[in-house]
Amino acid sequence: xxxxxxxxxxxxxxxxxxxxxxxxxxxxxxxxxxxxxxxxxxxxxxxxxxxxxxxxxxxxxxxxxxxxxxxxxxxxxxxxxxxxxxxxxxxxxxxxxxxxxxxxxxxxxxxxxxxxxxxxxxxxxxxxxxxxxxxxxxxxxxxxxxxxxxxxxxxxxxxxxxxxxxxxxxxxxxxxxxxxxxxxxxxxxxxxxxxxxxxxxxxxxxxxxxxxxxxxxxxxxxxxxxxxxxxxxxxxxxxxxxxxxxxxxxxxxxxxxxxxxxxxxxxxxxxxxxxxxxxxxxxxxxxxxxxxxxxxxxxxxxxxxxxxxxxxxxxxxxxxxxxxxxxxxxxxxxxxxxxxxxxxxxxxxxxxxxxxxxxxxxxx
Length: 364
Prior knowledge:
iron; two-stranded parallel ribbon; 3% strand; 59% helix; Indolamine_dOase; dioxygenase; mainly alpha; oxidoreductase
């Protein structure tokens, strides 16, 4: 905790690795309860990313020392997650309210552990927390809808679909706060490296050796919005079918979700098909409500694509033109890629287009 609480300063002064090397080998048996395990994982995952990338992408550490690797791997196994920072660490387990009775809004929230990046890093994490919060009514609506299909209750299903549409629109609205709180140049040049992994990353082509765990290097993808359960759940429920390449990547990202999230997606998978139900019902109100959900989901993806263009592609060309010379040289290896390792623009366009292909046309 002492190291994690000083992480930005230790990374910026290049002292983190020396501090970690002196860390005692911690014993996980003293952790009691789920919250402590999650906090341990939050702290160890942040320290791991800082340790590997402290000196930037040109000098990554290729070996994680045993006093960090052993407890991190043990905590990760206990929680059913891979030993690398994932969305559920960076975002879901990494916020607290300033005033516990106050609203869940940016001004009343704070991160628990940070990387370099100051206010932009805080904004990036907390806006994503608000995106997850905006999805809560949508996830509940999805459960309501599945039950409505099972009970053949068209009124309840219609209400659920309307609630889902509003939630998807609220997610887009929440995502819009990125513009207010995150500086694209700082995101690109400072923050992004610490979300990067060691799979499909030319900076660490072989992967990372976890000392005391395995002699061979292990490869894991970096953090990605595709590790959030939200859009996976909506896609499964609405029956969106992605291209093989996109679907393979998205399915691989499920291994980076908490086991309970994976189980939830499996449940939606085996639930009765909403599309089939609506097509066979001949109910035009349901069909319209369904299509409005699909259109809202496509609009969210179009908006996300615009954000990625601003924070990745445009920021990359600005950094290349050296207009951000006061910032560290940005990572070259990930230039056109998301931190999860995908060719990000073509991937996002494909998932958006496949969403639109899901629209139902009224029969005759």
